[in-house]
Amino acid sequence: MTSQKTILRALAGETLPTPPIWMMRQAGRYLPEYRATRAEAGDFLSLCYNSELAAEVTLQPIRRYGFDASILFADILLLPQALGADLWFVTGEGPRLSTITTQAEFDKLVGPNDVHDHLAPVYETVKILSRELPSETTLIGFAGAPWTVATYMIAGKGTPDQGPAHKLREENPEVFRAIIDRLTDATIEYLSMQIQAGAEVVKLFDSWAGSLKGDAFTEFALKPAKRIIAELKSRHPDTPIIAFPREAGDGYIGFAKATGADCVALDNSVSAAWAAEHVQKDGCVQGNLASRHMVTGGQDLIDETREIVKAFSNGPHIFNLGHGITPDADPENVQLMIDTVRNG
Fold first, then answer.
1. Is the separation of the CB atoms in 224 and 147 below 8 Å?
2. For residue 21, what is the DSSP state?
3. What pLDDT is attached to residue 150?
4. CA 37 from chain center: how many Å?
5. Is 75 a catalytic residue?
6. Mean pLDDT, residues 182-197 taken together
7. What mean pLDDT do residues 51-71 have?
8. pLDDT value at position 92?
9. For this structure, is 292 an active site residue?
10. Residue 87: beta bridge partners?
11. Which of 34, 65, 123, 152 is catalytic?
């Protein structure tokens, strides 16, 4: 069935009459069945590390909507935890980590090949999904890109401008680069194991790439992605890779060619028409409906969905949101989006 999977066909460069569709954070708090399973798990991290329950929430949106792909339920911060950082979640506020800002703190981290015991439940989730997903549904694994994960490790939490990471980059470049290099190496190992466990595609989420400008974008968003992709391609030449340098703006242009990515995911700060002209010419693109439409619905959702499908209709395209679906989204609007993509 692999050659018939629409996502894999799009990633191979095929222009399809109807774009395949999945949605970032499609397993999440907007679904009542997810909230019930999370309550059963007890807390977010317990859900991530319970392979059976993590597989269950990954499958829930497939059962409900029949998306063309399923993305592993996990979190980008499991990797720094596996490297040795403390990680916990504060209700209503999000993740917290022990900070890594000095050489001494960095030296306490484990090596990139020493993360697998900690991450074994994630690989088990992938194995379960590879058995239980419908034969037509593609399984996507993922990791955070080094820069984005580093911003959390350095600040100890999410920040509006990634200021602590930029400060360390400027004031202690040796430690900063060591963090990026360790994360790059560990991400290669992490994604390689996901592929060995059954992931058919992997995606690299660089959610804060847009705060890197000029040479810094090249050095800390583009180059780590290139190294990760090159190594994964050498180990798993048949596995497509999606890169998502969110809010890269003009940095989207040529990103696929520069990194070796099979597809570039787009946020909704760029128009589909612009991206079709400047980005899709190099291959498959993914995106890029604004997440707010999943809250507001109505004719605006229909019109914008149709506009994106039309703009990207002359090349390979995977329909998706420009960022993750939000907890306040209406599940009925997700169905409306899917129906609009598939039925016009």
1. yes
2. B
3. 98
4. 22
5. yes
6. 98
7. 98
8. 84
9. no
10. 97
11. 152
